[in-house]
Amino acid sequence: MMVQEVKPKRSAALSALSLIVIIAFLATLPLWTDDYWVRIWTGVAMWAGLAASWNIIGGYAGYISFGQVAFFGIGAYATAILMQPGLDWNFFLTLPVGAVVAGVFALIVGWPTLRLRGAYFAIATWALAEALTQIVNTVDFTGGSFGLSTPGNAETGFFYYAMLIASAAIYLIVFLLLERSRFGYKVKAVRDNEAAAQSLGINTTSVKLQAFVLSAALPAVLGGIDAYWITFINPQSVLAGDITDQMVVMSLVGGLGHLWGPAIGATVLYLSSTWLNAHFGSSTGYIAMIGALLALIVLFLPDGLVGFLPRARNMRLVRQMLRLPERPAGAAGPSADTSGDRP
Amino acid sequence: MVRVAMQLLVQTVIDGLLVGGLYVAISIGFSLAFGVLDVVDFAVGEWVMLGAFAGVASQAWLGIDPIAFLPAVFVIFALIGLLVAPLIYRVRTSRYARPALMALAFTFGIAMFARGVMLTSVGFDPRTVETHLVGGTMMIGGIHIPWLRLAGFIFAIVSTALFMGFLFFTRTGLAVRATAQNKRNASLMGIDVKRLSGLVYAIYAGLTAMAGVLIGAIYSFTAQVGPQYSLLAFFVVVMAGLGSVGGVLVAGLFLGMLQALVTVYVGADYTLAIVFGVLFLILLVSPQGVLRRGLAA
């Protein structure tokens, strides 16, 4: 079943070369451009990491979450709260705290909802994010709707490298855990055919839960860095539903369930949104644009932009995932398909 | 003292029930569209928002009172629904893996598109639908009942009754219920599922937009209000059990009451948090809905 493509050596060399060029480009960026472009690429790095973490649950596990911003916001608030005067935590120590809190939250939400059909999961995660925004808006220790500020730090390069290293680490984790381990095969098996995976002895609920907790803990780290970077956070800036929307759209535009999809989608969309903002000064048009783009991608290009890569024809993407024989719980047994029974 | 407290309680419950009627109106079509298309439509709140703006436009551009304009709103949005439904159907029946989730993402895209377009063209200013046909307040034994809210409630009851009548007393309604139960068997009986889901989606979009006009007359709204009503509709439908039409009546009225009670006795800031907390508990305890007739798991 898992027929491994025999890759020509030349194309392996080509992808290694392009990876080196990309790493060299990103690593030396602050040395040869001005602060403006460094800030923009900080954003690209952040969104690539966010979209990659969403891709774990949405692309690899096949459960669409519309509440991932909650975990980004938890990370941002964890860092901001712990760095307040009086507590004065070290910035780097706040990041794991945010990740753990977000992971525990994901465990609590995921445990009941991941047993259900995907639609319930989508609704429950969305409801969680909205409820969290409401709570943060009202309680005191988060500064309510006014928000919190973090100690200022003006070094653009510091944040660029912090964000880049965090996103690269997320990419490495996704690569090792989902592309190169048994866990990755389990997650994909659950996505492709949950019943079959279960019959092979995979504890599907536990596998889904692990994937969800992973995809919640990682964005919390990015949220923490973001809170320190933008120096002032409130529910509108770090808990806005638009953030989830972008994670979903970037993964889909790039390529769902593909390692490089989120990075490609994030780069293309973030750069085009910056361009739109600079030229038209409107961010609402961007909402309409990514909405239309999302609908068009689903209709015409479900594999995303990675479908255009030369070697993509042999990749197991959305189009090639196994189709589930879907039937509602009330329907009759598995003998629904009788097309071959004609005499 | 006790009498005043009682009066407040009765007033709150009645306010809640009146609003709950509108929640029933926006959820009933949504529930059925889910049953027939098997897609959770994330654009439900945007139909409410667009309907409310249609009410504003009818007053501002045509000089027609929005309440009198309701039938036209229904027709306009039913036509838009007829255009959107085949696309959702196409994604839903495509050969991709997890077509249900791809369709979900598709409706999410449509919702964002509608929100972005409206935000770009009208901005963030709050508005209300102004109507002169219905106004003032009725007093019964110290209880205030604004005529507008009563009108909204009556509209909700009438449209729900008409809808139920269509479902249970016509041949097409029978086909709709059959399709909601089992698409394959329904199409074997000669039902054109594609056409039928287009019809259901059109009715749903028109009904929801009409409810949007009334909601816009009662509460002020902005172009950003869509997701909030989507979540309320989700609450109702999840509580009723996805696809269960009868449960929607109970759940919608319950939601209205819950919201009113929390606003009065706990604080308006906590309404959404408590409403979503309850939604989460329902999912936890009884994922098939309170009436246990949904199509979960």
Properties at a glance:
heterodimer; A: 343 residues; mainly alpha; two-stranded antiparallel ribbon; 13 helices; 1% strand; globular; B: 297 residues; two-stranded antiparallel sheet
How are the SSEs placed, and which strands pair?
The complex is a heterodimer of chains A (343) and B (297).
Chain A: H1 9-32, H2 35-60, H3 69-82, H4 91-113, H5 118-138, E1 148-149, H6 156-179, H7 182-192, H8 194-199, H9 204-230, E2 232-233, H10 235-238, H11 241-254, H12 261-280, H13 284-300
Antiparallel strand pairs in A: 1-2
Chain B: H1 2-37, H2 44-62, H3 70-92, H4 99-122, E1 137-140, E2 143-146, H5 147-169, H6 171-181, H7 183-188, H8 193-218, H9 226-240, H10 245-265, H11 271-285
Antiparallel strand pairs in B: 1-2
Helix pairs in contact in B: 1-5, 1-6, 1-8, 1-9, 1-10, 2-4, 2-8, 2-9, 3-4, 3-8, 5-6, 5-8, 6-8, 9-10, 10-11
Shape of chain A: globular
Low-confidence stretches of chain B: 293-297
Mean of residue pLDDT of chain A?
82
Coarse morphology of chain B: globular
The most extensive interface, with participating residues per chain, is:
A-B, 64 and 54 residues
Largest sheet of chain A: 2 strands, antiparallel
- Secondary-structure-based class of chain B equals mainly alpha
Order of strands across the main sheet of chain B: 1-2
Secondary-structure-based class of chain A equals mainly alpha
Oligomer: heterodimer
Distance between the termini of chain B: 50 Å
Spatial ordering of strands, largest sheet of chain A:
1-2
- Provide the succession of SSEs of chain B: HHHHEEHHHHHHH
The tally of beta strands of chain B, per DSSP, is 2
Radius of gyration of chain A: 21 Å
